[in-house]
C-alpha cells in the first residue's frame, strides 16, 4: 500500500471527503437561496 511515499487509500479518502463536502456546501447555498 505504501507506494510513491504516500498512502493511496488516504489520498482517495481525502479527495472523496473534499468533493462530498464541496457538493454539500453548494447544495446548502442553493437551498439557502431558493428558500
UniProtKB/TrEMBL annotation:
- TM ranges are 12-31
UniProt KW keywords: Membrane, Transmembrane, Transmembrane helix
Specify whether Membrane is a keyword of the entry: yes
Annotated protein name in UniProt? Uncharacterized protein
Species the sequence originates in: marine sediment metagenome
| Taxonomic lineage from the root | unclassified sequences, metagenomes, ecological metagenomes
Amino acid at each position: 500500500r505504501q507506494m510513491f511515499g504516500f498512502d493511496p487509500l488516504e489520498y482517495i479518502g481525502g479527495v472523496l471527503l473534499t468533493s462530498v463536502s464541496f457538493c454539500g456546501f453548494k447544495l446548502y447555498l442553493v437551498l439557502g437561496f431558493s428558500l
